[in-house]
Amino acid sequence: MGSQTLQILRQGVWASVTGGWYYDPDQNTFVNALHLYIWLFLLCFPFTLYMALQPTMVIVGIYCGVIAAMFLLLKMVNYRLHHALDEGEVVEHQAKESQGSRGGTEGANDGGVTRREDSNGPGALKAKHTAANAAASSSSSTVKAAAGSEAGVRTGGKRRTSRRTPSTGSAKTHARVLSLDSGTAACLNDPGRLGAPAGPRPLTTSKSDLEAKEGEVLDAASLLGRASQLESVTRSRNSLPNQAAFTEPQDATAASLRGMYYTQRSNILYTLHSVWYTTSPYFTFKSMLIIHTSHSQICTGSLKVTFLFFYENYDNYMIAYILSVLLDLFLCNTQLFTFHFIIFLPFFLYSNVLIKYFSPLCYRNREVLENVLAVVLAVLVAFLGSVLLVHGFFTDIWVFQFCLVIASCQYSLLKSVQPDSSSPRHGHNRIIAYSRPVYFCLCCGLIWLLHYGSLRTTSSRFTLYGVALTSSLVLASARDLVIVFTLCFPIIFFVGLLPQVNTFVMYLFEQLDIHVFGGNASTSLLSALYSILRSIVTVALLYGFCYGALKETWEPHHIPVLFSVFCGLLVAVSYHLSRQSSDPSPFLSYVLYALLGTVGLLTHYLLPQVRKQLPWYCFSHPLLKTKEYYQFEVRDAAHVMWFEKLHVWLLFVEKNVLYPLVILNELSGSARELASPKRLDTEVGALMITVAGLKLLRSSYSSPTYQYVTILFTVLFFTFDYRHLSETLLLDLFLMSIVFSKMWELFYKLHFVYTYIAPWQITWGSAFHAFAQPFAVPHSAMLFVQAVVSAIFSTPLNPFLGSAIFITSYVRPVKFWERDYNTKRVDHSNTRLASQLDRNPGSDDNNLNSIFYEHLTRSLQHSLCGDLLLGRWGNFSTGDCFILASDYLNALVHLIEIGNGLVTFQLRGLEFRGTYCQQREVEAITEGVEEDEGCCCCEPGHLPHILSFNAAFGQRWLAWEVLVTKYVLEGYSITDNSAASMLQVFDLRRILTTYYVKGIIYYVIASPKLEEWLANETMKDGLRACGERNYVDLDPTFNPNIDEDYDHRLAGISRDSFCGVYLGWIQYCNSRRPLDCEKDSALVLLCFGLCVLGRRALGTASHHMSSNLESFLYGLHALFKGDFRISSVRDEWIFADMELLRKVVVPGIRMSLKLHQDHFTSPDEYDEPAVLFEAISTHQQNLVIAHEGDPAWRSAVLSNAPSLLALRHVLDEGTNEYKIIMLNRRYLSFRVIKVNKECVRGLWAGQQQELVFLRNRNPERGSIQNAKQALRNMINSSCDQPIGYPIYVSPLTTSYCNSHPQLGHILGGPISMGNIRNFVVSTWHRLRKGCGAGCNSGGNIEDSDAGGLSCGSGNGTGGDSQQSSMSQGGNSGPAPPHSYQPHTLGENCCT
């Protein structure tokens, strides 16, 4: 705990204050000192300039120039080094392109496959070793022995205890893999290929293997000891064509050196696989090697061997490098030795310092644009900060504080705080490095603008509610406030009040679009940018018309034509943005207000309350019940009730008539007054009219739930109470819409806080909770202030570590989470075949059950928007969260964007078998309170249909409420039976085996390829032995307890015993085909061979232990998923056509499982061949039987197949069991629970801070313990992984009202050319039929009407007929896409 606290203080607290600098114990002293000096330079340099020089622009020029040069140098060198060091990450891809045609020995010599992963994540680089690594590893024992002897000798001097331990910081940033791009040593393992390679070669040794050899020490003895390994390479050099190029030295010294060189060349192969990783920073200067291409055969080998020797024995690595270079040059060319010694020695010395000490200095910037942006931001910070300094904005100690802020902003561009307190993700966050400088630039720019405005403003031209907006005092006060805010940057970023830049931009655009232009929530940064740009363009287009109309002369009873055009365009544009239009009616103001208030109160308050499960928390059941309320099991789609139709029509009238009339009325009445010189003048007045009209109209179209409250309060407040404060009702409505939005948010936050910390229901999840509870009481006033501030900025108010202490988090958009999900399920289409057969990936319950949440998402996509408009989920608004709970499904539905006729949502599915805490909370939302009779400490009972006092009081102190208990949605009922209990005794296994054999016979006879199989010569030859009269299969797989046709006398299965049991079934299946099915026929022989093969495959998969239940189930599951292994020579005839396995044997074993299940309901029913044949044919049509890992299973579920069956093998938490899963499509009943959205946002933010920033990895932490009043465990479980653990998170899904069939019958469907044409045609046919029946005395009007209806589009049909058709479809359902269509043989047999 102490080390973790120290780590948080060092890497969290201190690093947040300094902008990223802290003492890193994983780095060496030089690196930490260099970091400290850089930070001190960034801090002291502007302060020294300010103190030493006069405050002029000279300081700005010097400071900006030095910072530009410094950052340009650092970023260029850092980018170049990382670019050189990380080239090997893509070498595999290049090698495959250039050497795709190579094979054989060259393919064996290629390096291991590397995989490049995101450098921000914790991924590692893996490599497979090839044959070339064998030579390197074969001498490891010799090297280790030499290392042991070396350790005893080296007692003096500086000695390392751990060599080349990778730093934690660099390991988190990225992993490196280097490649050999030049030189020819890579080819020295082949004597015939000593020339330069044709292309880049992939690496042959992974970094992890080389790091495992850290203890190896290479000395001269160990190097000479391996000379014999490549002796053939040394001898073959004399036969090279360019041998003349290597001039032999004549003196003895050169000859001895050359002899030593040839001795050392035997270690080149090992060196190639180790040095390039262990000494990777020192081989990035490959230009030196390119110079010596003509001498590469000698130079590269000696260079690496000499370098490795010095590298393992001395600390000055570059000395070894230079000595190896000089040795090569001396051996190759004496003149070049002198020249390169003079030219390259200073360069290599300087490069050594850069590489050794500079590579861990900065975080890696992947692209050039990132480096350019970092340099520009650093210079911009320097420019703005120095300008504010020289102009005297800061004095005394605040100068140093401001220099500290500047230094932290600039240093974060080199090494930022990781993780930052406002970072939404684990690992390295590239975006967070730019947060401080961007916020600094914004604040400095705002300071300059406010200062300029305060100096230039001389008169208060614009006033609003008695406040002069352009007053110099107001602007100066705002400037000083921003200055103080800027000086508090270290504390602000430590607390985490400012999010990363992209989150802030998305939040800012979203809030502006919602509160200023009446827009909706956005789903991404691009979406927010597009929304705000769209609104600005719309305002700009409408502003011209409004400005032109206000320039004209207005008469008392006449509105200019141009203003009427503006009003029409405003409605049209608002309709285009939110699909709504209307005309103004100014003279009915108070009538409109009264009508709007009445309709709004009825639509959004009275109807939702009387439809709730507990209306007003007083009644024990809904006052308006649906048809399904008293049904135990729902069988049909939800019936449309009269109050649902009333709700739709009231909502339609409210959005399409009342709100536009009210807003256009205020537009017409307030436009002239706002544009007057006494108010806002023409320019600003036109802008405000346009923005206010657009915002109010769009809000009424998209989210009309609480608009009536805002309008009624505004009218009453500014008309009767404080009329003198009114700035025209249009502007009052615009302002109060923003105020009421924040007030509702404050209400939700306070409700969450009070219900969470109520002392009579507090649940302490840890000792810290009990300790923090009494300390939160004296700080109630501070908590209220935090709630107000968080409501103003729409920031979550989260409980610290799940306790009663609340803190304000940073701003977030409505979507909250940054990740965009596109869940990919693990199945047989994306896993290896070997893993499918052996380990069975994805066999855990969570992966297999996630498909049901995916199907639930598809169902909601079709019905959610329509059900919301029908009022089945009560009142709703942007950001609301609901929980759908059934017997096994528990999903959180997050409404993100709400438009006019569309809803974008995200579904988060929880585990089927959750933890103990989750089960307690599920019980809380599913149990009823109607039976509660308590009142304080006694139980006097309660009035009929009324809640007791305790129940009513308890329901008011919950952060959630049950809206509906019978919400009908199409889904699958899941039935799982233990396969062990169904196959426990031998008699049940015998029944299964019998159905298995009959299934094989059915499928082989029904196959259209039967004649082809009977004529196949290979199959005839393979089955010839089975056709002998005395043939008996004595395989030990067959068991008299399991096989019905087992011959006890012959101790096996003969054709006679087989025909004695199954010949009648064969003849029935073949009764309508012109094929011979006698006992000695080819058809019977084929059926006999297939049935024996199928049972032998079952025995093989069961390891010939059919008497053991566990082995039998294992083999049954293997065959069910298609793992057939032919182990007998007698069965190899099946390879003549593998379709026999795929189309006959596999369906046979799967169908036998279903027939075996049916046997329990009607044991003797399938004894009749006709009944069994009909059952198999019906199951083929309506039932999908597949393994859950088969992609066909997922396709069938998402295609709404009527029934599905699978055999599931569950390996989870020590359990090893087999289950038979049966799915039946039907209408399910859900409980809809609405959760306080601020409760969800607060708990999500608390979990994110606790796991990401505070690094609490305790799986039993107190913040996830159950709290029934807030559903803490269920909400925290729904967080993004790895913070939470949902088994499924849907992508952002949009539901449209047009896809809801019941809503279309109420409103008539969308207005389109096709529907208009169908309506005209239907009306014409009805008129024509009616006239014809009237002229004919024998005609019947009703018959004619019925005939006319058949030609219509379906819109004229009644709701009851539509309901019945949907019910029919729900019972039968469409044929699954992968189902087998039965052969016509079945129809003929049933006639």
Q: What coarse outline follows from CA principal-axis ratios?
A: globular
Question: How would you sum up the major sheet?
Answer: 9 strands, mixed
Number of helices: 53
Amount of beta strand:
5-15%
Which whole number gives the mean pLDDT? Answer: 74
The helix content is: 40-55%
The N- to C-terminal Cα distance equals 81 Å
Q: What Rg is obtained from the alpha carbons, in whole angstroms?
A: 40 Å
**Overall number of strands:** 15
Describe what this molecule looks like in 3D.
With 1391 residues, this protein is an alpha+beta fold. The chain contains 53 helices and 15 strands. The strands form 4 sheets. Strands 5, 6, 7, 8, 11, 12, 13, 14 and 15 form a 9-stranded mixed β-sheet that branches. Helix 46 (1191-1198) links the parallel strand 11 (1183-1185) and strand 12. Helix 18 runs parallel beside helix 20 and helix 41 (1055-1069) packs across helix 42. The longest helix is centred in the middle third of the chain and has 33 residues, at 642-674. The protein is globular, with a radius of gyration of 40 Å. Residues 87-254, 260-319, 347-352, 580-584 and 1337-1391 have low confidence and may be disordered.
